[in-house]
User: What shape does this take?
Amino acid sequence: FLFEGVKNTLILTVIAVVLGVLLGTLVAMAKMSKSKLVRFLISIYIEIIRGTPILLQLYIFYFVLPELMPFLNLSSFMWVAIALCINSSAYVSEVIRSGIQAVDKGQMEAARCLGLSERQAMTKIILPQAVRNILPALGNEFIMMLKETSLASTFFLGDLMTTYAIIKGATYLTLEPMTIVAIIYLCITFPLSKL
Assistant: This one.
């Protein structure tokens, strides 16, 4: 049960973070858009996601959206993964935006003077430098998302905390399985934080 729980937790985390980084990159680019309307709408999106509890977001994606969009026909696991992805994207977008803005403005000016378009300058000059600023924060986001997947146990999706509940129910033991699950989380997150 525990190995299956670790596997499901890691799958959920990887899906949420990978899709969160992709969506977060798009959100970050939109947040730096020249259009005031786009910046305003993206700011609302970021503030709503960052300003509401992730458990509430999970409830909305698990209970409300499948009712509103039955044609999508997604599994419960995917609805939770999407909710975690949306949550992650709001935080990742701010990490990426701040990482890009931390690169000296003279870099963009120099690239433009050399004849590069704004897009070429961003992809070939600015983003490679910004990655160095972004990577540590993305590592922290991965660790945070790994721990936040424990909230998926609310929906019994087979993650690590769900296996704890199953073992607790079968053995009537609380402390032992909880300690084992805590050690497993620590064994996963500690090396990642050092990495």
In short: The first helix runs from residue 2 to 31. The mean pLDDT is 92. Residues 49 and 95 are 15 Å apart (CA to CA).
